[in-house]
């Protein structure tokens, strides 16, 4: 038996014709014949893949439905109709396997739960901390305030700040360190 022959030795000359007929005119007779011929083979193939009779049956039904829908995509010049059909079955099995492996959505997952709103004392503390920081920044020389804003609010790198201000990078680093020392001292009084 060659790859061009059916199990009974006959040529599948009409398999491609059946797919073309299904695509051209939604020919139910051709589809029924194709279903009778291929559904047991596809079921057996999928049973080997899934080792689950019910899953194989469901995937076979899904495969046959896909064949009905995609019959217009079959191109006899690209290969045998049976290879096209088994490729659809294999792809459907792969999709089903991937769906099984995907974790279920858990709405109670801590990563998906929003942080609770801070209570009144915490909001008040945050507001006081913010006011203290702004007051401390007002007491710094303008050059140091600019360096802190560029570094931490604009998130510019030290080398970018050095280029932008025309200063050596070492000077930028030491001035930022000096500004932080002054801020730390001013904020310690806040505590």
UniProtKB/TrEMBL annotation:
GO molecular function: DNA binding; sigma factor activity
The keyword Zinc appears for this protein: no
GO biological process: DNA-templated transcription initiation
Domain RNA polymerase sigma-70 region: 34-102, 136-184
InterPro entries: RNA_pol_sigma-70-like, RNA_pol_sigma-70_dom, RNA_pol_sigma70_r2, RNA_pol_sigma70_r4, RNA_pol_sigma_r2, RNA_pol_sigma_r3/r4-like, WH-like_DNA-bd_sf
Positions with biased composition (Basic and acidic residues): 119-128
The organism's place on the tree of life at top rank: Bacteria
Region (Disordered): 107-128
Keyword Ribonucleoprotein (UniProt): no
Keywords for the protein's UniProt record, in alphabetical order: DNA-binding, Sigma factor, Transcription, Transcription regulation
Similarity comment: family membership: Belongs to the sigma-70 factor family. ECF subfamily.
Name of protein: RNA polymerase sigma factor RpoE
Native species: Devosia riboflavina
